[in-house]
Each structure stands twice: as structure tokens, then as C-alpha cells.
Amino acid sequence: MQRFGDYLFDASSMDLKESLDNIFEDDIESCCDYKIFNRGYEYFESGLVEYASIEKANNLIQASVNGSYEYEVEIYQHEDKIYGTCSCPYGGAVCKHIIAVLLHVVDEGIDNIPVQKVIKVTAKEEDVTLDAHLKQLSKSELIKLVKKYIPDDFVLQLQNKKTDKKDALVIFQRVEKKINGFFNDHELLYEPSVMEDALLKQLKKLSGFENIIAEEIGKLFVSIMEKVDSAFDEGYLYIDDYYGDGYFESSDFNQLVIDYTSHLPIEQKIKYLEKLDDTLLQMSYTTFEEIAVLMPSSINPPESSQLCDYLLTNEQMLSDSLLSRLYNNIEKKLADDQKERLLLKLSGINQNHFISLIKLLMGQSRYSEAYEHIEQYLDGSNGYVNEEMLDYYLDLCIKTNGNINNVARKVIDLKPDKAILLKVKNYNLQDISHFEQVLKKRNAYDLLSYYEDENRLQDALDLIKNNLFYDDMVFQFYKKYKKQFKEEAQAYFLKRLEENLENAGNSNYARIAETISQLRQINQSMANKLLTDIRINYKRRRNLIQMLSRF
To answer: Where is each SWIM-type domain found (predicted)?
Structure first.
């Protein structure tokens, strides 16, 4: 099973231990931002790597780093790449704790990292152990155990299911009155998260009433959605603080609506979905758009035939948006002519439906029709175009003997990125320089990545020299290819040092330190001379001198 981690290095062997035996400090510095490397180096030098061990069975290293808290780090290999994960909350790429562990491994030597023996307990073995324990309990002990851990919400739901309609309505009216009062409470309306908690607390009191007072609960959900939308118009339920801004949202509320809908009989369910769809179409904001996304999940598999009959019978009276949202629920029940009719109707509001139409036509070898549909669609499009659609456009051009050069130009203009450029290249056009020029003007970063993937490093260097990139990107390029372009890299590093020495501040000092580090790897004598000059001429910049202390 592959974990989700941050890429560190290419592996030199299928064995992690052998791969890490060929890793050095310069390699570690190359896999992250210099500030992160510097902080990781400080953690390593301070002895904050508590332990590290090799788990051979899973081809990984486990370690613990004692920072603000104790964080768990794993270095592992998947196929021909080495990755790192950490339990810390850092939101960037490789963190300082991973760097500290790597430096510890290199310093200790991989052969001196202890091997950990792992006793694996499978999920099946855990189930067997639990089953054995539960079977030896008496009935009264099992009841006591269940009552100890059963959620309060579940108990309330059981109680509500046994309530008669008259009492259920009394409880509902209290809840409704309380919720309506929330939207007149100006203090609450300025606290979106508090409002969400208050709403959910009240709505949970209705759990179990779905089959007793279904109509009343459904109307209440719609009323809440409309009141929230109106509150937005009046400037309420809006979040604006240090961390950003945004409107009230509640996935829990959205799920409650869908759970309620799922319990309705199919006829009521379809009518309620129509009501929800109509309500969503009237909304000025997208707060409840998740409900639209979840609508298909409210249809239980045995209900798909009834749903299909209803949608086909009432197709002209239903909104295209509702048909679009429920199309996938009925697709397998439809004949090809029915699919084509609905997809033609829905293609204008959903690109995925349009792609399904193209697939349907191609499956029937109706290539010319499919090609014409895509031509018309793209001519009328002024926004995002799905990459899959462009793939079919190129493929259909070949199948219909169209002008692949013109189509390829149109495709790269619509979506100028590396993936499209690679596809166009595969058609063996005589000259793809036009397509590269489009990327150079509109997406130079992807063109640079393309040149690197194609090992066209001289073209990549020429692109870098065009002043199309921020300095951090240029630095990363020369950091990666300093050995291939030693002269250009050295000139760039010297210029970068000069520019950053003109200004004080830790961000400038960090750039000076990381630049010196790279320069040392291609011209150590020059770097040492510069270090000496900096220490003499800038000795009053204590933070800078501290950052350079490891050299």
C-alpha cells in the first residue's frame, strides 16, 4: 500500500537501506527550501531526533523528533522514489523534522541505524480476538457494554421513532420556533460557527421523526436554506478575520438534508428533490451546492427503475439541472436512443454529459457526427474545457481525416499546458515550435517542465534567461542543474549574492546562505573567499553571521 508523502529523492536501488547509503548532505539540501533545511539542521545538531529505526518488512525508517511536540516521521520507498511523511501540522512540502531525520541517518551511517522487528497483526486477527471476547460475555454484560458506549443521539432517535404524531408535532413546533428565533438574533447572525452549532443541536431533536412528520421536516430544511440565503443578502453569516473570509457553510446540515431525503418513499423523494432543485436555483450563493452534489446518493439502487420511468415521462416538465444531477442514477436503465436524447438536452450545462454523448456516438462509429458536435461546442465555449474532450477532438480529427495541424493549434490555444503539448507531440507533426511558443507566452512554467522532462536542458536554460520567472524559480533551476551549467550557475549565484547583500533582513540572509551553499558545490575556493569577506565586512549583521556558521 502506498502512503501519501512528500517526494525526496530518486532511489538508486529497490532497497531503501541501499538507496539511503548513497545520499549525502547536499542531496538533502536539494530536496527542500533552504529555510527548512537550516531549521532541520538546527534540530539535528541539537539532538532532537529521539530515535530512528529501520522497518525492513515495509522498507521504511521510523523516527521521532522532539520539536514543539513529539512528531513521528517516516522515510519510505515506493517503486523508484523515496518519500517522507511527518505528523506535524506544517502545510508546505518537506518539513524540518524530515530533514533532521535524514541528516541523522547520514551522520550515523545507515548501517548503524537499528533494525526493528515488526509483529504484524492483521485486521482479521483483530476481529477474531474481539469476537472471542464478546462471545464469552453474558447477555446482561453485553447490554451493559452497549449502553456504556451507545451515542446519546442514537438513544434519542429510538425514542422519537416510538412517539405518536401529536407529540412529535409539539416537539417539532418548539424546534421550529427556536430556529426561527435564531434568524432574528443579530449577535448569533454575526457568529456563523455558533449559528451552525445551534441549528444542528435543534435539528438533532427531530431525528427519528422522518416517517412521522416528513412533510413538516422537509419544509423546515427548505426554510432554513432560504433564511440563510437572505441573511447573506443582509450582510450576516459572513466570516471575515485574520485567516480569510467566506460565508456560512455546514456539511453536517447538508448531510442531514440528504439523509432525510433518502428515507422518503420514491414518489415523495422525487417531489422533494424537485423542491430542493428549485430552491437551489433561486439561491444567490453557493453555500448549499453540496446538497446538489449529494442528491444522487439519496436514490437507493432498487429505486432506479421507478426514477427512470418518472424522469422519462416528465422530462419536459423537469428542470435540466435536476435531470443532469440524476442522470447517472438512470443511465444503465436507458436505451441508446434515450441516452442520446437526454445527453443532447443536458450537454449545454455539463461538460461530463457532453463527453458521455461523444463516447456514445464513437461507440456507434458515428465519428463525423461526434467531430461536428465537438467543433460546435468548442466554437461556442468561452471558459474551461475538459482535457478529455480535447483528447477526443484530436482522436476524431485523425479518424475523420481532418487537418490535425489546425486542430492541434486550436487545442493548444484552448489549453496551453504541458499535458496537451505532450499529446500534440505524439502526433508527429513536422514542426511543434508554434505550440512551444504558445506555452512560452501563456504558460512558461509548464514549458520549462516540458523541456526538463524531454531532457532539452539547453532549451530550458535559454528559457530561464528570458526573465519570465520569479527569482525563486530561477534559483531552483540553477540549484538543480548547477553541474550541467557551471558557468551560468556561478554567474547567477554571484549576482544573487550581490543583490541580497545590499539589504538587511532574515529573508535576505537566508537567500545569501542558500546561495553560498550552492556555490560551494561548484567552486569551493570562491565560496570560501566570499564567506571570509562577508564575515569581515558584515560582522554587525549577527543573524547573517549565525546563518553562515555551519560553513
So the answer is: 71-106
- Provide the sign of the torsion angle of the four alpha carbons 383, 389, 391, 396, taken in this order: negative
Tens-digit pLDDT profile for residues 353-388? 999 999 999 999 999 999 999 999 998 877 788 899
CA–CA distances in Å: residue 248 to residues 43, 186, 281, 543: 41, 15, 18, 44
SS3 percent helix, strand, coil of the chain, rounded to 5, is 65, 10, 25
For residue range 166-201, what is the model confidence (pLDDT) as tens digits? 999 999 999 999 999 999 999 999 989 899 999 999
CA atoms 45, 49, 55, 58: torsion sign: negative
Residue where the block lists cell 453557493: 286
Tell me if 363 sits within 8 A of 396, measured CB to CB. Answer: no
DSSP E strand stretches across 190-232: none
Q: Report which of 357, 302, 340, 298 is spatially closest to residue 322, judged by C-alpha positions.
A: 298
Strand 81-86 to strand 6-10: parallel, antiparallel, or no bridges (unpaired)? antiparallel
Residue 351: all three cell numbers together = 461538460
Number of DSSP helices (H) and strands (E) in the chain, helices first: 30, 7
Q: How many residues does the chain have?
A: 551
Spacing of C-alpha 138 from chain mean position: 48
User: What does the alpha-carbon distance between residue 509 and residue 301 come to, in Å, rounded to a whole number?
Assistant: 63
CB 208 within 8 A of CB 159: yes
CA angle, residues 142, 145, 150, in degrees to nearest 5: 120
- pTM higher than 0.85: no
| Cα 44 to the center of its chain, rounded Å | 31
Residue 77's SS3 state is: strand
